[in-house]
Structures are given as structure tokens and as C-alpha cells.
Amino acid sequence: MTWLGAVPAWCWWLIALVLIAGGQQYRVAVAQGDTEAARREMADYRLAVTERDRRAAAQARTEEQHRQAMADEEGESARQKLELAQGRAAAAESAAGGLRGEIARLRAGHRATCDTIATQQRQTGTSAVVVLGGLLEDADRMAGSCAAALERSRIAGLACESIYNGLSIKGRDTSERQLR
User: Does 165 map to a domain?
Assistant: First the structure.
């Protein structure tokens, strides 16, 4: 008989069981080590992503504050230009009011002289001076309001264009930096 036969069968089963249990224990220990390493890597990754997100948010806030400051500056400039244009429009309206007063005075004077001289000659209808004076008043009033509206529109358009150009140039610079 050989030495293998001297070992009882239940011992062989015990040896096999110990080897299998030991192998399983080794596999579990290796898996736990891999899991712990994976956890550390995941924690490092989360930390890196959090830091990157924080920096990106800070950069976006800075960019937005810069753009808002530029838009506010352009808006203030546009408001000042509008106030100046409104002042000019008020001065023009005042001058136009003076001209309208002068036209009214001339029309009244013309009526008074025409009424005494040509009462017989005048039939129905009014004098050409009176009609033209009225048309001139109306045209002057309409031109003043149109000029004021166009000036406001021009100032607002230029401010909008300036803000857009500033933002698009800044946006291009930012996107070019991100590509690098």
C-alpha cells in the first residue's frame, strides 16, 4: 500500500474542503482589496470632478458679471444719450412753438388786413396763407415727433449693437480659450 492509501478518505475530504475554503478566502481578500482601491479611485475622481465643476462655475459667474457690467455700462450710456436727445427735442419743440406762435400771429394779421380790404372779393374758402400756415404747423409738429422717435430708436439700436458686439467678441475669445 502506498502512503496515499494510509490516509483515511475523510481526511482527503477535509484536505479538499480546506483547500477550497482557503482559495475562496483568498479570492474574497483579493476582491476586497480591489474594491477598496476602486473606492479610493472613485473618491479621487469625484473630488476632481467637484473641483472642476467649482472652477467652471466660478469662471461662468465671473464671465456673466463681466458681461452684465458691460451691458449696464452700455445701458447707462444709452440713457444719457436719450436724455440728451430728449433735451434737444424739448428745445426744438420750444423753438417750434415759437414758430407756430409767429405763424398764428401772421395768420391773424393777414386775416385782419384781408377782412377789411377784400371782404367783397372773398367768397367761400380761405386764403392760401392761412391754409399753408396750418399745413406748416401740422407738418412741423409731425416732423418733431418723428425726429424724436427716430433718435430714440437710433440710440437704442446702437446700444444694443454695441452690447451684442461686445458679448460676441468676448464669447469668441472664451470659446477659443476653451478649445486650446
Answer: no
User: Rounded distance, CA 147 to CA 153, Å?
Assistant: 10
Q: What is the pLDDT of residue 49?
A: 93
Containing structural domain, residue 31: 14-52
pLDDT along the chain (180 residues), means of 10: 74 89 88 85 93 94 90 87 84 79 74 58 56 76 82 85 78 55
In a domain, 132, yes or no: no
Name the 3-class secondary structure at 50.
helix
Q: Long-range contacts of range 138-141, CB-CB < 8 Å, 24 or more positions apart?
A: 140/96, 140/99, 140/100, 141/96, 141/100
**For the chain, what is the domain count?**
1
Q: Does 22 fall in a domain? A: yes
Residue 73's CB is within 10 A of a number of other CB atoms, namely: 13
